[in-house]
Design brief:
The protein has six helices and two strands; from the N terminus they run E-E-H-H-H-H-H-H. The protein has a two-stranded antiparallel ribbon with strand order 1-2. It is elongated. A hairpin with a 6-residue loop joins strand 1 and strand 2. Helix 1 packs antiparallel against helix 2, helix 2 packs antiparallel against helix 3 and helix 4 packs antiparallel against helix 5.
C-alpha cells in the first residue's frame, strides 16, 4: 500500500587485499523478510533501546558488517559490533517482528547473530582473520604460505560443519568466499 512495505535487502561488504588493487567480499546477505510501515516524509530515528522497523534493520546490518570487517584484521576484533547487533536483534525479537525470530524455521537475523556469538563458532570468527590477514593479504609476498593458511582455514571449517548440522553463518562464509577459494587454488 502507500505506507506498508515489504522489501528484500541485499547487503555486502568488501575490503582491500593488501599489496594488490583487488578487493575481497567479506560478507553478503540477501534478506527477504523486511516489512515496515513508512509515511512519506516521516523522519527516521535510531533509538538503541527501541525497535524501529527501518532503522533497527539498517543499524543491525551496519554493526554486522563492521563486526566482520574488524574480524578480518584481528582475532575476534568485531566483538563490540556483534554485541551491538545482538542487542538490536534481542529487542526486535521481543516485538515479534518478521525476520528477527530464531524460531521461525528460516535462517534469519536472529539465527545469524546467535551463531556468530555462539562459542561453537569461535573458530569461524578466528578463521576470518586467518583467511584474510594471514592468507589473502600475504598472497603477493608468499603465495605458498598464504595457500597453506587458507587450506588450514578450510579444514577447520570442515570440523565446524561436522559438529553443527545447519549453519547459516558457515553458509554465509562460503557464499562470499567460494569463487575466491577456487581461484586461489587454481592450478595447485
Amino acid at each position: 500500500s502507500l505506507t506498508e512495505f515489504r522489501a528484500r535487502v541485499v547487503v555486502a561488504s568488501r575490503r582491500p587485499i593488501y599489496g594488490t588493487v583487488q578487493r575481497t567480499t567479506v560478507s553478503q546477505f540477501s534478506d527477504q523478510e523486511w516489512q515496515f510501515v513508512y509515511n512519506r516524509g516521516a523522519p527516521l530515528f535510531f533509538r538503541p533501546d527501541v525497535y524501529e522497523p527501518i532503522t533497527s534493520l539498517i543499524n543491525f546490518y551496519v554493526y554486522i558488517l563492521l563486526g566482520f570487517d574488524y574480524d578480518t584484521f584481528d582475532d575476534l576484533g568485531g566483538s563490540p559490533y556483534f554485541e551491538q547487533a545482538r542487542r538490536i536483534s534481542d529487542i526486535a525479537s521481543n516485538t515479534g517482528a518478521v525476520g528477527w525470530s530464531s524460531l521461525s524455521g528460516e535462517a534469519g537475523r536472529g539465527d545469524l547473530i546467535s551463531q556468530i556469538m555462539d562459542p561453537r563458532f569461535r573458530d569461524l570468527r578466528v578463521a576470518y582473520a586467518d583467511y584474510h590477514l594471514r592468507g589473502l593479504d600475504r598472497f603477493v609476498t608468499d603465495s605458498d604460505a598464504a595457500q597453506r593458511t587458507m587450506l588450514d582455514v578450510i579444514i577447520r571449517l570442515e570440523a565446524i560443519a561436522d559438529e553443527v548440522q545447519r549453519s547459516y553463518y558457515l553458509d554465509q562464509f562460503f557464499t562470499a568466499k567460494s569463487k575466491e577459494i577456487a581461484s586461489a587454488f587454481k592450478g595447485s
